[in-house]
Structure formats: C-alpha cells, structure tokens
TrEMBL record:
<comment type="function">
    <text>An essential GTPase that binds both GDP and GTP, with rapid nucleotide exchange. Plays a role in 16S rRNA processing and 30S ribosomal subunit biogenesis and possibly also in cell cycle regulation and energy metabolism.</text>
</comment>
<feature type="binding site">
    <location>
        <begin position="57"/>
        <end position="61"/>
    </location>
    <ligand>
        <name>GTP</name>
    </ligand>
</feature>
<feature type="region of interest" description="G2">
    <location>
        <begin position="36"/>
        <end position="40"/>
    </location>
</feature>
<protein>
    <recommendedName>
        <fullName>GTPase Era</fullName>
    </recommendedName>
</protein>
<keyword id="KW-0997">Cell inner membrane</keyword>
<feature type="binding site">
    <location>
        <begin position="10"/>
        <end position="17"/>
    </location>
    <ligand>
        <name>GTP</name>
    </ligand>
</feature>
<dbReference type="GO" id="GO:0005829">
    <property type="term" value="C:cytosol"/>
</dbReference>
<dbReference type="InterPro" id="IPR004044">
    <property type="entry name" value="KH_dom_type_2"/>
</dbReference>
<keyword id="KW-0342">GTP-binding</keyword>
<feature type="domain" description="Era-type G">
    <location>
        <begin position="2"/>
        <end position="170"/>
    </location>
</feature>
<dbReference type="GO" id="GO:0043024">
    <property type="term" value="F:ribosomal small subunit binding"/>
</dbReference>
<comment type="similarity">
    <text>Belongs to the TRAFAC class TrmE-Era-EngA-EngB-Septin-like GTPase superfamily. Era GTPase family.</text>
</comment>
<feature type="region of interest" description="G4">
    <location>
        <begin position="119"/>
        <end position="122"/>
    </location>
</feature>
<comment type="subunit">
    <text>Monomer.</text>
</comment>
<feature type="binding site">
    <location>
        <begin position="119"/>
        <end position="122"/>
    </location>
    <ligand>
        <name>GTP</name>
    </ligand>
</feature>
<dbReference type="InterPro" id="IPR030388">
    <property type="entry name" value="G_ERA_dom"/>
</dbReference>
<feature type="region of interest" description="G5">
    <location>
        <begin position="149"/>
        <end position="151"/>
    </location>
</feature>
Length: 293
C-alpha cells in the first residue's frame, strides 16, 4: 500500500480547499471567494484500493506579514512543508502573480516531489490560450509533473489522485479507512458557521471575524449547539445581526442545514454576536481563540 502526507500549497483563492473537498467527496474545508477563508491546517484523508493520501489544506501563503493573523497563516503554511512526502502546488490557470515566483523558490528548496496543478481551466474557453498558458507555466516552473485541472468541475481529479498515489512511499495506512479528517465535529461546526458568514456578508465584514462554540450537546434526538460570533466593533455587530435579526437568522439556517448533513442528525443552533476588540492584531487574543496550533 501507498500512504503519506500531501500538502496543498498556493496563494489565496487558487482553489486549495475546493480541491480537497472534491477529492474527498465531502465538505470538510470551507471555501469562498474571499482570500483567507481557510485559517487552520486541516487534514483530508482519502483511502482508496491502492493507498491512503492524507491531504493537508493550508491557509494560502501571504506576502503581507504586518498583521499577526497573516504571520500566523504564513507559519502554518510553511510548517506544512515539514513532514509531507508530496506537494501539490496550485496556480490559477488564468494568471499568475509575482508571488507565485516566491512560492516556486520555496518549493524548489523543499526538495520534495511537486505536482504543479494548473487550476480553473474551466474558465479558459479557447484551447490556444490554455495551451499557451500551459507551455509558459511549464517553462517558468520547471517541475516534472504538471497537470491541468478544474477543482470546481472535478476535471482531471482522478488523474491527479493517481499521480499523487504513485509519488507516495510504500507504507501501511496511518488512519482507519473510514476516517476523513483529523478535526472534531465541534471544529467543523464552527468552520461551517464562519463559511456562511463569509458568504452572506462578503466584503462587508473584515477578516477579524471568528466563531467560537461555547456548548456542544449531543442528545439522542438532536444536537444542540451554542456558538458565539466574535466581531471587533459594534458597527460590525449590527451588520451580522441585520435588520430585525434577519441576517443572523439566515446565517443560522444556512449553517444548520450543512451541520445536519455533516453529522446526519437534527440540529438546534443558537448564535450570539459579541464584541472583542482588535483580536486579529494581537497575538495573545489570537491564542485565546485557539489559533495556537
Ligand atoms: P483557497 O483559498 O485556495 O482555499 O480557494 P477556495 O477553494 O476557497 O476557492 C476560492 C474561489 O475559487 C471559490 O469561489 C471557488 O469556488 C473558486 N474555485 C475553486 N476552484 C475553481 C475551479 O476549478 N474553477 C473555477 N471557475 N472556480 C474555482
Ligand atoms: K478562499
Ligand atoms: Mg482555503
């Protein structure tokens, strides 16, 4: 059997979390149009007949180290390269940015097999453009393995999966074959709520928003979840709550439906919005919210 760790690397919004979810056939890492949606390292375990690929989804690599949150994200992305056997590096099939060159240098130094996945090829309508982009990527980032994919439309994901397995070492599976992630349901629940907030409120809300599960009660008929949405200012609190509580209600019901799917049980979800000032700029506040792994 093949088995090992596979890092998903790339700048924000190239589609790392979408790829991981679609490789696993289940949503365990939240996604959105907003960069910095993924804040924590999360494992996605894919066991097939030929082996076990343990994908490590990471926050994107950032070029702005000014804020404490960004420093945390970069540390997480870099420490991911330690202890993995294969790297899948995603670039956006429509454009790259100078920052991709920096990532390229980092990956070259890592000395591990790298698969360059050119993502979002579904957006490229004509073949010529795609071929030209592909040829240029091949020259610029001269890795042995390069593959066009669409994480969203699931194009070429089987080929990618096959290539990953080939590059992994021979080893017995590390996780039981039915386990798909290392994160407890409580954590996934908080992430789902954060995804709904990000999707409904998009650019209106800063990155500073976070979700904390205060109580998670499993009963035979229903799971009761009490969560706090932390924001930085009272103006943000009003945005999250919305007129007569409408926004919070919608976010709560979006989240509840996804959580019910995840845990396959009825859910009662109660959301509170509270103010905690300046947390993203303050390392201690970050730690108190669990950003310490
Ligand atoms: P991450 O920041 O790298 O984890 O990126 P996400 O997985 O959160 O995706 C960022 C955005 O790109 C989301 O709106 C996705 O729906 C979109 N996206 C991801 N993969 C594809 C793809 O293959 N094609 C298209 N058209 N959009 C994609
Ligand atoms: K994103
Ligand atoms: Mg992500």
């Amino acid at each position: 059997m093949k088995c090992g760790y596979v890092a998903l690397i790339g700048r924000p919004n190239v589609g790392k979390s979408t790829l991981m979810n679609h490789l696993l056939g289940q949503k365990i890492s939240i996604t959105s149009r907003k960069p910095q949606t993924t804040r924590h390292r999360i494992l996605g375990i894919n066991t097939t007949e030929t082996g076990q690929a343990i994908y490590v989804d990471t926050p994107g690599m950032h070029d702005n180290e000014k804020r404490a949150l960004n420093r945390y994200l970069n540390r997480t992305a870099e420490t991911t390269l330690v202890g993995v056997e294969v790297i899948v590096w995603l670039i956006d099939g429509l454009s790259w940015q100078p920052y991709d060159d920096l990532i390229f240098k980092k990956l070259e130094q890592a000395g591990l097999p790298v698969i360059l996945a050119v993502n979002k090829v579904d957006k490229i309508k004509d073949r010529e453009t795609l071929l030209a982009f592909f040829a240029e990527a091949q020259q610029r980032f001269a890795f042995e393995h390069i593959i066009p994919i669409s994480a969203l439309k699931k194009t070429n994901l089987q080929q990618l999966e096959k290539l990953v397995m080939e590059l992994l070492p021979e080893r017995d599976p590390i996780y039981p074959e039915d386990q798909i992630t290392d994160r407890p349901e409580r954590f996934l629940t908080a992430e789902i709520i954060r995804e709904k907030l990000t999707r409904r409120l998009g650019d209106e809300l800063p990155y500073s928003l976070t979700v904390e599960i205060e109580r998670y009660e499993e009963n035979p008929e229903i799971t009761k979840i009490y969560a706090v949405i932390w924001v930085e200012r009272s103006s943000q609190k009003s945005i999250v709550i919305g007129k007569q509580g409408e926004m919070l209600k919608k976010i709560g019901s979006d989240a509840r439906l996804d959580i019910e799917k995840l845990i396959d049980q009825k859910v009662y979800l109660q959301l509170w919005v509270k103010i905690k000032q300046g947390w993203s700029d303050n390392d201690r506040a970050l730690r108190s919210l669990g950003f310490n792994d």
